[in-house]
Structure formats: C-alpha cells, structure tokens
Specification:
Elements (H helix, E strand, L loop, with lengths): L25 H11 L6 H8 L3 H12 L19 H14 L2
C-alpha cells in the first residue's frame, strides 16, 4: 500500500552553536607572535596551527612591533664606537699636514 504525504519542501535548520569570537589574552598573543618570528615563512603555518587567520596574526605582529601588545618589542639601542688606532693616526697625520 502506498502512503502519500504532503511535504512542503522547506527544511528547518537549527543553529546550535552561536560561533562566538575567541578572546585572546595579551600573553597568548605574544606567545603566538613570538612563535611566528621563529623562522622565515612561519606566519601562515603558525596561524593555521592556532586556528587564527593570517591577517589577524599579521595585525598582532604589527601591534607587537609598535609595543601595543603587552610585551615590548626589541628596540634598538644607541651605540658609541671607539675610534680605531688607524683612524686616530690618519687624523693626526692630516692635522700635521695642514699645519697650525
């Protein structure tokens, strides 16, 4: 015996996960950024490993360099170089040559 039912063809999709955004602490971001600096071409691989987009990791790296990510980025320091003996002798020779 055939059973025929009327079907509307519309399905109801139930969403069970709201897909909330992940909140990363500054410490977690700094650790992930430090890992991405470990070698050449590590940004994409590190982003995949931690489940973040490459563009987000790139933004974190820029924030890290600008010292906006909790841990200060390595900074350049002023360096004063001592003159070499050859340099001193050359200056003295030029000075003597010009005269008083």
């Amino acid at each position: 015996m055939d059973v025929h039912r009327f079907s509307s063809g519309v399905e109801i999709l139930a969403v069970t996960d709201a897909g909330r955004r992940r909140r990363w602490s500054d410490g977690e971001k700094a650790r992930i950024v430090a890992e991405s600096f470990s070698g050449p071409r590590e940004v994409s691989a590190t982003a995949r490993r931690h489940g973040v987009s490459r563009s987000l990791l790139t933004r974190w790296r820029a924030d890290y360099r600008a010292s906006r990510l909790g841990t200060a980025a390595p900074a350049f320091m002023a360096v004063t170089m001592a003159a070499t003996r050859r340099h001193c002798l050359l200056r003295c020779w030029r000075h003597r040559r010009r005269g008083p």
